[in-house]
Predict the structure.
Amino acid sequence: MPGLVSIYDLTRQDMEEIFEDTEKRLNAQPRKELSGKIVSLAFFEPSTRTYLSFETAAKKLGAEVIGFTGEEAISVAKGESLADTVRMLENYSDIIVMRHRFDGAAKFASRVTSKPVINAGDGKHEHPTQTLIDLFTVRRNFGFIDNLTFGLLGDLKYARVVNSLLRGLKAFRPKLAYLISPEPLAARREILEELNYPYREVREPHEVIGEVDVLYVTRIQKERFVDEQEYERVKESYKVDLKLVEQMKKDAIILHALPRVQEIDRRVDKDKRAKYFEQASYGVPIRMSVLVKYGVEKA
């Protein structure tokens, strides 16, 4: 059954409908729209925010929740295949929300089950519900997404949130995307070849920071590196500090999918342009909208 494996599974109209639905949920009492449903949270990779926000979203909607986080807690640790685990979850639940360390795992899962699969992050591939949160935050702060200049800063090679966001922006009309990273962490060619809007690769953020409307900061993820020496060389490439923020437009915003390590100075938190905690607060209502879309409309 169709689910949400990639942000490409959604048209602009689909995204706008999710955003409108999310707006209605922000200050409303949740309705038990998934009463009688069971949501599986199959997190083969550790997670805190994404797992808990999906769990909270499902419970607010009246669903029962089953699941795990980490392979050591399930039969995969004994050698069970991904396909067998997914088929087991199909017998127990109505929706499968899955996070996995391997690229393409969610797509594979969607092919071996008749239940909708929602991708909660697969390797360095995609994280579509995070992209919905990101774009919703932009929309709330500006009233629109089109014709804005985006700056994506940090790990653009391994960060799945970047891949999803770059792809998600194809449904809109960004003015320009600055891709700011050290050479070893530059965005992958196969992603850039898909884009239908202008972009420019940059090494130093101060060169373009004054033009950016949305600064999207990414953590340099040690767990994605095969070579630890490569990680050591780039781990502290950039830091968004007050000096850099002072060069930004007054109405610009700073986003981060979290967790952060050292890439944003904590003193920036008090700046009105820092919107990453606001961004995180939209995780539950966005995921409520997604669960309803695939748990009710696709039932």
Summary: Residues 7-126+281-297 form a domain with the Rossmann fold fold (CATH 3.40.50.1370).
